[in-house]
Write a structure and sequence with these properties.
The protein is an alpha+beta fold and 237 residues long. It has 6 helices and 8 strands. Strand 7 (221-224) and strand 8 form a beta hairpin.
Length: 237
Amino acid sequence: MPPPSNPISFTIHCATPPNPTILSYPITELASLALTTNAPPTEPPLPSVFLAALRVRTPVFVHEQHCSPEGEIDAEDATSWHFVAHVDDGQGSQTPACALRLVPPSSEPTPVGERQKDEQGRFLEPYHGATKKWDGHEPYIKIGRMCTLKEYRGRGLAAKLLAAAFDQVGAHKGGDFSVFRGEEVQDGERRWNGLVLSHAQVAVKAWWEKMGFVEDEEMGRFWEEGMEHSAMWRRLP
């Protein structure tokens, strides 16, 4: 069935890091909260945007794609920017429909080591050394947990959410990392110059290419949560 042609009304919400309270909860409890209607306030409080993101991520990744909750929710959630598109239902309510997170640049270069493999001999991570598309040292933002609820796919939400996220963080291109990590910047710390990495599912690689990302063949294909992925780069203008 083709997607509806009528325009979709939505608003975008963002939670900026750090959000250390996320680490106070067991992963299984976070996954349960994501599917609880009218859940009571959490204590300590969790960012409402993060909970909204989980209400998109859990149905897509855990239930639809059969990822483990432990593989879907991780420590990087506490240090990431979270973006969620809420769709207006026409009756005064909004539903979280599309989500992504941006993991801020690391203050240290990624170490080069031997790539881990699973029992079938498949790589579990990309090659982290220098390639023709990355010098092995330049800081980058990693985009991840990009997903849309099934009933809202084909409406252009993901592309619009990605553009909004890039507009917000792109304004800080060339700056230090304090705005990304919520930390005090140390003297001599490296700066981010607009480089973005996606660990893209190979099944939707063509979509990422439409968004301006280019595959880094030298990093190789790898498997996350039973799905083949590819490292893809884009530099924000």
